[in-house]
Design a protein that fits this description.
By secondary structure, the protein is an alpha+beta fold. It has helices at residues 4-12, 47-60, 113-120, 139-144, 152-155, 158-161, 190-194, 228-242, 254-263, 292-305, 318-329, 331-338, 353-367, 401-414, 430-436, 439-452, and strands at residues 17-18, 40-42, 63-67, 84-88, 104-108, 125-126, 162-169, 174-177, 202-210, 212-213, 217-225, 246-253, 277-285, 311-314, 345-347, 372-378, 383-389.
């Protein structure tokens, strides 16, 4: 057989193939925990080139690893074997014209999320996916990991925002499922199968995304809560009181606030009172006639009367609201700058958040007394980013990272939740999945992988055990 590298270069042209030092920026994952040097990085310019690359790699027995913005936290977009080709979708970044009447848009997989937000602004439409990495995360990666973000409880996960897909399958064929309809029950829901598959079944090349009207008004508040139980109770009240207008319900703790204020420049806390927990609330409406400020002020007053809210402030402008949001968004950065950290992506039923955090703190302190615990995340859907920092005066976790992961994943499973809420499994959590999910569930996933990728060339070692 002809040298596959020569054939790949011929398919992709001079801008489409990177190797050696040019491939190094694609080699390691965002947390710098996974990744070896691949055979090279393919940068196709269109779907036909993606299909040709996948077909050639399959014939040559080379692994194919799709990569978007490489902002994932579980090592799913890099390779752990040298006989692999990373397929970067960065050159496929076309944004179609939005269908204003239908509320949809066709985009290529390499579109950066922030670029999509910017492109939609003049049209009065929005794509309601927001997360910390939106300046680098790409649509294909968001689909592959079924991303959630801060507005998932209102608008859904990525699978709920995808109407149609175009996918290059493991044998190099192209499935055209670019149907811009919400209701399509003509068989298996294939588009949802590829959402969260992390490139193990095929490569998403284009997508039809669901859009929403840009809100004509928004209201926001930052609230100080005495504890997590109060935050859960007030969140339940807000869901009933604000209903469909409630678009953001985020929480963070005092340790997270302290680390953010300590390390992140120009970050300011504007309330007089400090507490154990903080809630960030956002309401939005497409109508200017809805009294959002009155709804939020009334809810805040009720919360104070009930002893659930210690202090709070309503945002007086968009800039003020953005300052509130920044306190939440800088939580990961503040902890990163403090030093060594462990990240855990947990979800439980929203009503169980306080119980999980209490039980989790007990378990973690039994493993390593004095470990600093920084839970923050999405109160509306029960997603807790349960991050740890070593005890004061300690540089690391004394080799106990695995014990923390096992204890917290078992606790989440016991409470009817998940140890992989929105970051996926990647390479990091396969063993965790094997021990926390039933044999039948894991076998179904393995059978799907075997049926759609019988040679095991699509992102081996991710989601399920590698067979390549």
């Amino acid at each position: 057989m002809t040298d596959p590298v020569l054939e790949l270069r011929a398919i992709l042209g001079p801008k489409g193939w990177l190797s050696g030092i040019d491939a190094e920026p694609y080699q390691r994952d965002w947390l710098n925990r996974y990744g070896v040097a691949p055979l090279g990085v393919a940068r196709p310019a269109n779907t036909a080139e993606v299909a040709a690359v996948v077909k050639l790699c399959r014939e040559a027995g080379l692994a194919v690893v799709p990569q978007g913005g490489n902002t994932g936290l579980c090592g799913g977009a890099v390779t752990e074997q040298p006989n692999a080709v990373i397929v970067s979708l960065s050159r496929m970044a076309a944004i179609g014209k939005p269908d204003l009447d239908s509320g949809s848009i066709v985009v290529e997989a390499g579109v950066v999320l922030a670029a999509l937000h910017e492109a939609l602004e003049p049209h009065g439409l929005m794509f309601p996916m927001h997360l910390g990495a939106e300046g680098s995360a790409r649509i294909g990666g968001l689909i592959g990991t079924n991303a959630g973000g801060s507005h998932a409880f209102r608008y859904g996960m990525m699978q709920d925002l995808v109407l149609g897909l175009e996918v290059v399958t493991a044998d190099g064929a192209v499935w055209d499922g670019l149907r811009a309809v919400q209701k399509d029950n003509a068989g298996y829901q294939l588009r949802k199968l590829y959402c969260g598959a992390e490139g193990t079944l095929g490569i998403v090349t284009r997508a039809v995304l669901r859009l929403y009207p840009t809100p004509r008004q928004q209201a926001g508040a930052l609230l100080v809560m005495p504890d997590f139980a109060a935050a859960v109770a007030f969140g339940a009240f807000l869901r009933g009181e604000a209903g469909e207008f409630l678009t953001g319900l985020e929480f963070f703790c005092d340790l997270g606030l302290e680390l953010a204020l300590k390390h992140v420049p120009d970050l300011a806390y504007q309330l007089e009172t400090r507490g154990d927990v903080y809630l960030l609330v956002e309401l939005a409406s497409g109508s200017a006639r809805v009294p959002l400020d009155d709804i939020l002020a009334s809810a805040l007053e009720w919360g104070m009367e009930q002893g659930l809210v210690l202090d709070g402030a309503l945002a007086t402008s968009g800039a003020h609201r953005a300052q509130f949001w920044r306190l939440r968004e800088e939580q990961p950065e503040g902890q990163r700058l403090e030093g060594e950290q462990l990240k855990h992506d947990i979800s439980v039923p929203p009503g169980a958040i306080a119980r999980f955090i209490e039980a989790g703190a007990k378990a973690c302190n039994e493993i390593l007394p004095g470990v600093r615990i920084n839970p923050f995340g999405h109160l509306g859907d029960g997603n807790i980013h349960y991050n740890l920092t070593p005890p004061v005066g300690c540089a690391d976790f004394d080799g106990k990272a695995g014990q923390f992961a096992e204890a917290l994943s078992a606790l989440a499973t016991e409470m009817g939740g998940s140890f992989a809420a929105e970051h996926g499994l990647g390479r990091a959590k396969i063993a965790m999945a094997d021990s926390n999910r039933g044999a039948v569930e894991r076998e179904i996933m393995a059978r799907l992988k075997g049926a759609l990728d019988p040679q095991g060339t699509m992102n081996p070692g991710v989601l399920v055990r590698s067979t390549l």
